[in-house]
Amino acid sequence: MLRYFFVGFSLLILLVVSITGLRGWKSKRPPIELFPDMVRQAKYKPQTESEFYADNRSARQPVEGTVPLGYASVSTSSSNGTMGDLGPYQNIQFTASSDYVATGRFGNQWGTGIPFEVTAAMMQRGRERYNITCAVCHGATGAGNGIASKYGLNGIANQQQQRIRDMADGEIFNTITWGKNTMMGYGSTIQVPDRWMIIAYLRALQRSQRTTWSDLPTEEQKNASSWK
Ligand code: HEC
């Protein structure tokens, strides 16, 4: 009995020493990997040669006509023809400067007003961008009843409420850029001029839902007075 104990005990000591006693030793041999995870994988390091491609370069050239995100001029990427002049803002795209155009603020204050003259084509573009990005949640008229609200997204703001009618354009710009509470930001996907065009369109949406007599041009008021 005791013999078995001694044999077992020696084996145990041998095991412990062979595991712990060799710590700190260096070896050139690869370690035993029980779980190699993804330590070794077939890949090319940057700027290396490759036998596989005819030009012997491991890196591929971008497909012809590729436009890096943020480098397409707003005026050329529209489906609504010429946009009109954005003046000095023509090429800002995703620029994150500290001025009103890129932040919606003057110092610590929200500013209001679209920083360029809004043309009909810009309105069209605003509508297009709004319908692509915002309408899924806020709905086509901004009432907060977009398709996402039918699939469990709660608390979507109604753009028609007085609080948002009264809100400074700059604050809405900031919400588009950075998001607000449960709404994520769209600053990385919507270019700066497009954000302003969306706001211009949003203002039109708000007016469309609460038009007053005085909103009609005088000519229209005269025409309409017959059925008033
Ligand atoms: C995925 C859904 C979703 C999308 C897309 C979305 N929003 Fe929102 N938005 C929300 C939700 C939810 C809220 C309410 C957030 C909160 O709790 O205050 C909100 C709030 C707002 C508000 C009110 C913010 C405030 O200060 O109370 C504005 C303005 C707004 N969104 C504009 C936009 C515009 C413009 C777009 C398109 C560029 C857009 N949203 C896209 C979900 C969305």
Quick summary:
This protein is mainly alpha-helical and 228 residues long. The chain has nine helices and four strands.
Sequence-ordered SSE layout with sheet pairings:
Blueprint: H1 2-20, H2 100-103, E1 105-106, E2 109-110, H3 120-133, H4 135-138, H5 147-150, H6 162-166, H7 169-178, E3 179-180, E4 183-184, H8 192-208, H9 218-224
Helix pairs in contact: 3-8
This protein binds heme C.
Residues 133-134, 136-138, 148, 155-157, 164, 172, 175-176, 180-183, 186, 190, 198, 202 line the site of heme C.
What can you see in these coordinates?
- The protein is mainly alpha-helical.
- It has a domain of about 100 residues: Cytochrome c-like domain (Cytochrome Bc1 Complex, Chain D, domain 2, Orthogonal Bundle), CATH 1.10.760.
- Helices cover about 35% and strands about 5% of the residues.
- It has a two-stranded antiparallel sheet.
- Helix 3 packs across helix 8.
- The longest helix has 19 residues.
- Bound molecules: heme C.
- Heme C (HEC) binds next to helix 4, helix 7 and helix 8.
Using only C-alpha atoms, the radius of gyration works out to 32 Å
- Which stretches are low in confidence, meaning pLDDT under 50 for 5 or more residues running? 74-81
The class by helix and strand makeup works out as mainly alpha
CATH secondary-structure class of one domain: Mainly Alpha
Ligands (ions, cofactors included): heme C
Alpha-carbon distance between the two ends: 114 Å
Instruction: Tell me what the CATH architecture of one domain is.
Output: Orthogonal Bundle
The CATH topology annotation of one domain reads as: Cytochrome Bc1 Complex, Chain D, domain 2
According to DSSP, the number of beta strands is 4
What gross morphology would you assign? elongated
**Quaternary structure:** single chain
Instruction: Give the count of helical stretches.
Output: 9
Give the overall pLDDT as a whole number: 86
Helix content: 25-40%
Strand arrangement in the largest pleated sheet: 1-2
CATH superfamily (homologous) name of one domain: Cytochrome c-like domain
How many strands, what sense, and barrel or not for the largest sheet? 2 strands, antiparallel
Order of helices and strands: HHEEHHHHHEEHH
**How much of the polypeptide forms β-strand, as a percent range?**
under 5%
